[in-house]
Amino acid sequence: MRTKPLLIFVLFIGILTSYAFISHNNDTTNPFVVVLDAGHGGKDGGKYHKGLKESDIALSITLKVGAILEKDPNFKVIYTRKTDVFVNLFERGAIANRADADLFVSIHCNAHNSQAHGAETFVLGLHANERNMEVAKKENEVIFLEDNYEENYAGYDPDSPESFIGLSILQAEYLDQSIMLAGLIQNNFVNKLKRKDRSVKQAGFIVLHQSYMPSVLIETGFLTNKKEGAYLNSKKGQNDMASSIADAVKSYRKNLALATSDAQNPVITQDEIEEAIESTEEKIYEGVIFKVQLAASSRKLEPKPYNFKGLEEITWNKEDTLYKYYYGETSDYNKIQLMKTYAREKGYPSSYVVAFRNGEKVKLADVLSDEPQ
Ligand SMILES: [Zn+2]
User: What is the distance in A from the centroid of ligand 1 to the CA of 106?
Assistant: First the structure.
């Protein structure tokens, strides 16, 4: 009878802990680190078409994205390359990992033997179809130019058409965030620039497999399409693409900050706490009201969420000269335990449960020594 709520509670703590682990840097005082990866370079020019060279165009767009982000003090930009040099795929991810970056953005151009056109943004995953596999395979081919690729990319067989790179465990954790960023990028391409939407896709890109943070690979467009190739090779086209990408990165950071409001730690959402409360067994103490005491202060604060790190259901009372502020109000001891955990994650690390009977504060230990009804 008592095991179930405990188990759910333990699971819940597990969720909180893993969220804290997954989310990188929601602390708004630290810069948000973005690794910009210009595809190819040096002996690997990527795709060529009638004088257009993928590695040059990708680098140009990448540097422009970086220049925009660097103007914003919220961001720190790291490049995998800033000049026309060869960097192997393995090293690109390693650069991002060493920097403990918040995002990895790889920028490329596409090619096809048709007049196909449009922009698409990939997150790591299984090749959903042959076309996605072809795109990934072409981008992965560069490993043939690397020494010891068999060692660096264990398990990848580029000769096999079925060969794919599955999700690494960490990329699976970051998939939602990667998809969010990819969606923001595609939205800008389509709505601001009127590029043809080839949508957000999944495929097995080795370069995305190496990083342990939310990561996307952008195919900005087709060099082989007459109009699009010229656009991507133009200053205007590169500026447009760069500002769309930079804007999306900024929106992504904002969304993430909003999701955690001004909490000091990345926390689960209000919906998730409610869901956990709903699925937890009740443990009712009749005639008792539990609350989570957040803080005591000589200052009177409006009991509004913005004064309490986004927490709702705030009440207060005055005891002697101090105002005491409480979160939650319930006769269910299991529920208040969850609410306490939530309050602690939201930035009240020393909050604790208090009990009231007939409006008077009573000792919690005395209440708990009675059996619940
Ligand atoms: Zn490429």
Answer: 9
